[in-house]
Amino acid sequence: xxxxxxxxxxxFWICLCLFGLYWFTASFFLAKRxxxxxxxxxxxxxxxxxxxxxxxxxxxxxxxxxxxxxPSQERNGCWMDRKIDxxxxxxxxxxxxxxxxxxxxxxxxxxxxxxxxVREGSNRTQAKARLFQFVADPPTVTMQRLKALTTGxxxxxxxxxxxxxxxxxEEDSWMHxxxxxxxxxxxxxxxxxxMGFVGDDTWEDLFPGFFAESYPYPSFNTRDLDTxxxxxxxxxxxxxxxIRTRASVTEDLEVIVVHFLGVDHVGHTYGPHNQHMDAKxxxxxxxxxKILDRLxxxxxxxxxxxxxxxxxxxxxxxxxxxxxxxxxxLFVHSSPVxxxxxxxxxxxxxxxxxxxxxxxxxxxxxxxDLVSTISMTLGLPIPYANLGSFVPALVxxxxxxxxxxxxxxxAAQIWRYFNVYxxxxxxxxxxxxxxxxxxxxxxxxxxALREDxxxxxxxxxxxxxxxxxxxxxxECLDLGQRVWTRFDTLLA
Length: 492
Description:
By secondary structure, the chain is of the alpha/beta class. The chain has helices spanning 2-28, 44-51, 56-64, 97-103, 105-112, 142-151, 174-180, 202-206, 227-240, 262-270, 275-296, 323-326, 347-350, 369-377, 400-424, 431-455, 459-484, and strands spanning 86-92, 128-135, 194-200, 213-217, 253-260, 302-307, 327-334, 364-366. The chain has a domain at 84-337: 3-Layer(aba) Sandwich (Alkaline Phosphatase, subunit A). Helix 2 (44-51) packs across helix 15 (400-424) and helix 9 packs parallel to helix 11. Belongs to the PIGG/PIGN/PIGO family. PIGO subfamily. GO terms for molecular function: mannose-ethanolamine phosphotransferase activity.
């Protein structure tokens, strides 16, 4: 009799442990399924009609006014025309916002001053530059940050284990779009665009074979403060001599990626406040200033993004979710010949909108927002699973009609992804509320298009539609964060 009770007792505890393990894994080990689908170059009209419900006549009007690119015309972009001739991405690993604001006077600080002129005595337009807080999702480790910055997705717990070993990105990304889409659809002279890279070898682990020119350096020796940075400086100016220009007829480099590691390694070794960090930031300031000076002398439109993939704590580490770790810097610089970007700071004054929409001023930008912005800037489709929101303030030459169209395409892309994911992977809750917000934005967009056709452009009408698309996009990101990045302790 006693052995039977003991057996029941053991079975009870085994079942309880199994239930506890299930509860723990279901609520703590967040998981997201990767979808194999990729955005295509010819689906802008399909997204607007089938996902947002615009009429064929409205889409044809957008194409005839050259707001949308059309397969039936000679194109300079997939969904929309490209805005720049080339893109330069300069990653300064662990560049906190305060580092950029206070410790880069020649590269960042000098260009933020309104009196800064590219060439003294020149009548050329000034270069455009802005500094933002660049907010990352935890975990704040390099591999997860680079995945997010190229796919527009959110990391999950399981991604942390992949940080110590190369994990190729299989999801759709703007990197994949650059190298696979026929370049002639985007105004290039070659079938395949070329990208160049130098720096942290994590990029080669994530995107093997993507770069036409590649100079990777090992990244795990945090005591080595200079090898990667010296390698970057050795190759960057040679690559800049082959950057794509407006007059390029050869296969020049359309995208250049440079990943400096010294600031991060100094932080790990000595912390953020010491003479080693002062020296490294001074070195970075001089290097970045020379790169920007070189780009400013060009007669073509180049956009440069200088940013940290994450920040660092006061003891020099990162990986968690504190403000010091998640708030990096983003410095955006467009060369002098690029057009002026839209004055989106006027949105609050022009239209009465909620506090949520004040993000349109973009003093703070979510890192994955860079993905849709890069895609639209280079004339690419937005990656299929992207959750980031297009940032008009980062795009040279953007006007209100094109910006609203870009936000509409962005909203359609995310809404399609949510519905496909919910139907084929895991059901997402909260889609009904999002559908109502999307319908409001689309109705306002239709009103703006109708008013534009009948009485001429109404900036206020387009801004109102844009603000509601921004609300929808923000709510989409919040849903994604609830599902994939916030631990559910109650298994709700």
